[in-house]
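Figure 3 (text version): structure tokens given as input.
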């Protein structure tokens, strides 16, 4: 019991070397498996304290997932990606069982973000967001995260993810699976913007923005001719051809000819 309390204290704010000396197995593995599903396209092996781990996981999410906004009934703009995944990330970090060596993961795939961590189960099966009784796994850590604004009231995370997921990914619902291994699955429409951000190194923000405009134009109007895409995107023909080559090089679109551009839709769903 004493070791468990000490472990929770050190992972909250401790230095990396101290955490490693007390909990050598402690880590959170963030992976992207879109093109390389056997290994990974990108990875962040996180072995730092929970406060820093939260920031790194959110940065990883921001890098690979598209940003979407929603205006509520009061005219407030809501960052859907942030509202969903701040809950998912906080849940993954706060409610895990630290003394168990089970590997904690957050995996981004083509159509979902999935997490898993060892937990003190208080039930089994899919959690009903309307009819469930939340149980604090690490109440002191949860209280600290609430005080610094990283989590809301206990149980609100499940309800918020369900609420905003339907806006972020229309027609889809998340799943929270209770058990010795707690699992979360949040459907996503795809990682088009994130793939560009994460794959094209050295490009300026302006270039990345134009690449996204072009790629979305191809998604919306597959099979158009180059002059059509030039008119739609307002990108000059020579520049557009260069961008198409870049998108083909990272395997987001198929073979390009002067007549048409065929999109590999399986990369975007």
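Below: residues designed for each position.
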């Amino acid at each position: 019991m004493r070791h468990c309390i000490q472990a929770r204290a050190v992972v909250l704010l401790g230095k990396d070397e101290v955490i490693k000396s007390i909990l050598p197995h402690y880590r959170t593995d963030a992976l992207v498996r879109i093109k390389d599903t056997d290994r990974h396209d990108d990875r962040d092996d996180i072995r730092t304290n929970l406060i820093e781990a939260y920031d790194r996981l959110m940065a990883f999410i921001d890098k690979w997932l598209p940003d979407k906004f929603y205006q509520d009934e009061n005219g407030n703009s809501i960052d859907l990606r942030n509202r969903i995944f701040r809950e998912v990330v906080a849940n993954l970090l706060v409610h895990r069982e630290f003394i168990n060596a089970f590997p904690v993961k957050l995996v981004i795939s083509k159509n979902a973000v999935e997490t898993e961590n060892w937990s003190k189960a208080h039930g089994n099966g899919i959690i009903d967001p309307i009819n469930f009784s939340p149980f604090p796994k690490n109440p002191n850590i949860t209280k600290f995260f609430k005080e610094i604004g990283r989590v809301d009231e206990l149980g609100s995370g499940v309800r918020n993810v369900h609420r905003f997921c339907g806006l972020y990914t229309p027609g889809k619902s998340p799943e929270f699976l209770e058990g010795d291994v707690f699992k979360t699955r949040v459907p996503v429409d795809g990682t088009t913007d994130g793939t560009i951000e994460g794959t094209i190194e050295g490009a300026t923000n302006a270039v990345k923005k134009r690449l996204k405009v072009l790629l979305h134009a191809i998604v919306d109007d597959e099979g158009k001719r180059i002059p059509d895409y030039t008119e739609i995107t307002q990108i000059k023909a020579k520049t557009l051809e260069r961008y198409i080559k870049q998108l083909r090089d990272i395997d987001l679109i198929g073979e390009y000819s002067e007549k048409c551009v065929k999109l590999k839709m399986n990369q975007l769903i």
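Residues 256-269 have pLDDT under 50 and may be disordered.
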